[in-house]
Description:
Layout: H1 4-36, H2 40-61, H3 64-72, H4 78-110, H5 117-142, H6 146-171, H7 177-198, H8 200-204, H9 212-247, H10 253-293, H11 300-323, H12 326-333, H13 346-362, H14 364-368, H15 372-397, H16 399-424, H17 431-450, H18 458-485
Amino acid sequence: MSNPIKKLLGQTAIYGLPSILGRLLNFLLVPLYLLVFKHPSDYGVVSELYAWVAFLVVFLSFGMETAFFRFLQNKEDKNAVFANSFLTVIGVNVLFFLLLLTFNQNIADALLFSDHNEYIILLGAIVCVDATSALPLAKLRAEEKAAKFATIQSISIVVNISLNLILMLFFFNNDRPEEGVIFILSANLFSSLVKPIFLYKDFINIKYKFNPKLAREMLLYALPLMIGGLAGIVNETIDRILIVHLLYDGKTAVSLLKAKAEVGIFSACYKLSMLITILIQAYRYAAEPFFFAQLKNEDKNKIYSKVMNYFVASVCAVFLLVSLNIDLIKIFFIPNEAYWIGLKVVPILLIANVFLGVYFNQSIWYKLSNQTKFGAYIAVSGAFLTIAINWIFIPKYGYMASAWATLIVYAFQMIASYFLGQKYYPIKYNLRKFFLYLFSAILLFFVSKSFVFDEGSVLKFVVNNSIVLIYLGLIWFIEKPSVSKS
């Protein structure tokens, strides 16, 4: 029998590669944006709009991806499961886009983009295309059509990157930053359209036979996941929206410009913590169907525990690698010194994303036990906590409040999920290894900070990366026997 852990690693590589490459390439676009936009406020506009994109994609996909995977396991009519979930998502998106076309100016006024309602229309088109493409892509994952999945995702990425480079380097006039925003959104829309074009058969061959009973079951399962997903996006992106609205005095253009500049600085530095998020996203593509596939495996809890060990070790290693090389990384990825003032948020956000990854691993308990309401409870509680911390402290501390809020909330969700999971669907995780890996990484980070080096010196680079190697050696020493037995 094949080793399920090795299978997960292989699937993570196959399904995650396009995601990793896409996010890395999009990550590499950030230096371009920071160079072509004259002022951080211009990049702040882009960041704020994409905060809304993230929120709306979760809302408009309605948790149906996970519901689709779950119902495939216990329903004989697989085509009916796909058709009902797909039709539900299409219906929600058609209604949303019609409302957006009708009220786009009102929405633009509310979001402080009164002079640019075209941003709202482009944004709406992007999220509707992405949300309706999610189910056909999930179907490819369920059918293990990895090559087709990777090809579609890769072509979409190439189109997005190519259009960004062409439009921003050859057509953009930095005296008109609003053009740059339109170029970025347009490139995203065209790249998103690649997915339904390649998946057109799923759109035209779908059987428009709606099963109300099945749809209701799937909606009841998916609704808490959607609420939890929305709350999760609140935790991840609401700070960029709140920074603008809480720092803007509602009176002068100068205060609005300053507020958007704060968003631009925070978002640019936040991108460095995305290196862990990229790993989580790639892992997520393979992990969710993998976890469900282990339902009938007698050793499933041991497998989940081992996966957690390897995951924590991996993301903590990325935390050390990025945080200890920040002086070098900033030169290449944040070439505009106006943004460097915000780099102090990066280690905080990296640890926050470690907690987020652990929480994602733990979340399998309420998905497997059909108690998705707990996921919603945890995420909604986290969302309220996020909003409260940001609302109280942003006016005084600016984006630093947002960084600490992210860490506090993800830690809270991780802890809450663990204790609820142990009560309702116990999985015996190795807490000793978790704390060892986490605290060793944090301790080594502070050890590196105790050394005094000239910024950018070769000695500093050698010492810091030797510390990273020491950490990797510790992980290998601990996990090697386990890997050998597997």
